[in-house]
User: What shape does this take?
Amino acid sequence: MRKKVVILGSTGSIGVSTLTVLRHLAQDFEVTGLITYSNHKLLNEQISEFKPAFACLIDSTHHHHLKNHPGTTIYSGREAALKLCGEEPYDILVSSLVGFAGFEPTVAAIRSGKTIALANKETLIVAGHLITDECRKFNVPLVPIDSEHSAIFQCLVGEPHHSIESVILTASGGPFLNLPVEEFQDITVERALKHPNWTMGKKITIDSASLMNKGLEVIEARWLFNIRPDQIQVVVHPQSIIHSMVQFTDGSVKAQLGVPDMKIPIQYALTYPDRKPAPWNRPLFSEMKALTFFDPDTNRFPCLRIAFESMTAGGNRPCVMNAANEVAVAAFLDGQIGFTQIPEIIQEAIDRVPFNGFPDFDAIFDADHEARRWAEQCVDKKKRVLI
Assistant: This one.
């Protein structure tokens, strides 16, 4: 029987790539549900093609734009999304809704015993200690989709946990890797959205430009692989061919390589522990002139430093950092603040929200709310006059 898949965030870049993979794997999987936030136009197209049992638009203000699709039950609203993720019969949730919005539906799926193919890194960032406990309680596997975490996951297959010395996440460095720091104040949204290697959504592309995305991945890795903060390293690798590495206690290092194409880790997450033939591009090693590596500069990219500090502090600190970053990035994309003000807003929220070392789920929501409130106030103070 084909496995039933629900895609949370079906109209985002990961969701669209997942549907491309599922076209290729149609003999093994069927699309049971499509859930997205507000892109009703693309959702209508996806429903017409894949004919899922249900579809949901979380932003109910756009519900009237959804057409009647025979055989597909249409829902709207946050509560409907939570119920669908937690109560419908299916096998795998592809959790790819960007940001904190994906947190609750993913928890609902975990509590219903679904396998989670995880692209929504925020779920582990804001409450890693709680999510890992829930996964153990409900015997739910978390299979990573992010290329870096998929790489580490693959390197660890067959290896005992005690043999891990460190995991090494690679970073492309983003579009401003070699830009003089004095020019950072002039960075425009258009320039920040031009990632040199990957095609992604706007929010994650800005996070990659600030290296916050790598910081988020660091925290995610800490919980995915049950390792200490001091076991995680980041190296800049501009070619994005080696997606990440694991160093073992005997000095050996495993690396996972491939072209920068999200369809590869998405397919592995869906078919794990099997590997299925795929038509995706292969690396041409004879055309690679060099693979280079060097340490990131956290003075030029303070978001990465803030993420490491938040991970080490633990508690509600990563949740506060994530919420403030979402507010700051949205403000930058809106033209309200400059690129260099993103880490300033994040740090101010961290300084303002009281630290809680052992937050429960309610405390996580409180921290997220408070961090957004402070970050929005900070944005208001920093708004630029646009000419």
Notes: The mean pLDDT is 96. The longest helix spans residues 361-382. The CA atoms of residues 2 and 150 lie 23 Å apart. The chain has 14 helices and eleven strands.
